[in-house]
Amino acid sequence: MKSFDCTAHSKKYLTVIRCDVETSRNRPQMLHMVAKIIQPISKIFISTGVYFKHRQRLTFVYGTTFEYCEFISRNESRPSNPVAALVYNYAKHNFPQVLVPCPVFGIFNISNLSLDENMIPPFVTPGGYYASQRFHDKRNETILKYETEFYINVKRFQCKGTPYEISKLHYCQLETFRNGTQVIGVLLEIMNNLHKVYATGGLYIQYFRARTQLLATTLEYCQHNKYKKPIENAATKFALDYAQQHIPQILVDCPVKTGYMFNITGVRIDDTLIPAFVLPGSYYVELRVYNKRNQTVYHGFAEVDIK
């Protein structure tokens, strides 16, 4: 989760004690929202909106406004508003302690709520979402409003097939810091002169265990680097342009000599790494570099959620 913010509240009705997301290494994020309602509320309206997000564009998915006290007191009102029923059932399953009888009063405590895959409704497909929920009275005065959104996340990054035959991998790691920032690093030493360097890469859409190829290419880098001919293969051109923009330190002159160190450390994972044509979803990326004898120089993959 990129953010969770209580963006507005009425001091006449309540005091917000805590409203944040706690991010720690090697465990799910934890949501904390604690508020004290200091004035009994006999009518409280809930306005909910969920949007599919791609960069700065929001596409409406579903939403509704309903009066909570009437909803819980009249069973027949539930089927008439399926989105209200969805919101109610989701709260009942994940944080039932907030579903209190009216008038609403006292402490509302949602602490240490683990934000894991069990929190995802079954109908939500992979992708990025923005959601907001606003509680207001019959005069439309805001009691509390909160907003949340999700972001790109590298689920897994791994260098495979080690030890390599003609190179030495010193470092290969994905670090996730407490504030949610992720950084990738690879440190690779060349052990034999390379006069020809082949690279095969692919980008795949991933849904559970199924993968659909989106982009793939194989190129001989040294020949291209020597002659600088126009590139006809669109996937190859994209791969080289992407490397030039984001990791130019790997584009070195040939031959690549023994002892040369490829230092790709401190690469921060953020929105600028997302190609313009890539929509929100789950992706698998793989790259293998090898010589003319098919001996591996480097082989790695990443599983990425763009949200």
TrEMBL record:
What InterPro entries does the entry give?
Answer: DUF1091
Short name of one Pfam family for this protein?
Answer: DUF1091
The entry's protein name is Uncharacterized protein
